[in-house]
Amino acid sequence: MTLEEEKQLLEKIKGDPEFFGKIFDAYYKTIFNYIFHRVADYDISRDIAADTFLKAYLKINTFLWRDVSILTWLYRIATNEINYYYRKNSVTNLSLDLLGSQASILFEFDDYQTEKQLIEDEMKLNEDFDCVQRSLKKLTLKYQEVLSLRYFEKKSLKEISEILDKKEGTIKSLLSRGLDKLKVEYTNATKSGYMHYE
After folding, report:
1. Tens-digit pLDDT profile for residues 4-53
2. How far is the C-alpha of 82 from the C-alpha of 74, rounded, in Å?
3. Helix %, strand %, coil % for the chain, to 5?
4. Which of 9, 59, 118, 197 has the most crowded CB, counting CB atoms within 10 A?
């Protein structure tokens, strides 16, 4: 969807909220995959995605058009929902796989049970996934946010800056420090023998 199409769609939504479904159809899979890469749990990811789109639907009329994609706004809401989930449940964010060095898991959503089973099987087959999860548990959310957006979502520094509402210089710094910390944690985890599922 182009920016011009989004702008026109926003005008239609003001007259008829049913048009919000076009935003859902266009961006749900993208947002779900982002959430899954942060959370690494299919059911929790579905819940967070549902909350993300519900909040977007309820606040769509307050969205101010600034020639920035609605998708950027959705990423921001999803990031806030993920962080809220972790704060509420007193658990640390994890995931990211191997920062894009291996194939990412993407979803088609045709059959819930089949999709869930395929994803769980894929995760079990990927020995490094567990090791990276253990490593990322030791990083703070601010590092996981930028690493996920940069390496999974392939966002530019400018886009990450818009999504997280932080300066590009801050994003660069967080990426650099986050990668350094992840490398240390990952190296320590592999030396400790956490490469396989228990």
Report:
1. 999 999 999 988 988 999 999 999 999 999 998 888 788 999 999 999 99
2. 12
3. 75, 0, 25
4. 9
Query: Among 58-67, 101-110, 114-123, 136-145, which range has the highest average pLDDT?
Result: 58-67
Please name the helix (run of DSSP H) or strand (run of DSSP E) that holds residue 42, with its range, or none.
Answer: helix 42-59
Distance CA 148, CA 154 (A): 8
Which SS3 state, helix, strand or coil, does residue 22 take?
A: helix
Helix axes 157-164, 168-191, angle to 10 degrees: 100
Question: Tell me: the pLDDT tens digits for 86-134?
Answer: 888 865 444 554 444 443 445 555 566 676 777 666 665 566 666 766 6
Domains within the chain, CATH numbers bracketed: 3-191 (1.10.1740.10)
As a whole number of Å, the end-to-end CA separation of the chain is 44
Distance CA(136)–CA(51), nearest Å, equals 24
Tokens 């809401």 -> residue? 77
Spatial separation of the C-alpha atoms in residues 41 and 53, rounded to whole Å = 18
- Residue 192 tokens, joined: 């400790």
Tokens 């350094």 belong to residue: 180
Count Cβ atoms within 10 A of the Cβ of residue 22 and give its class: 0-12 exposed, 13-18 middle, 19 or more buried.
middle
DSSP state of 66: S
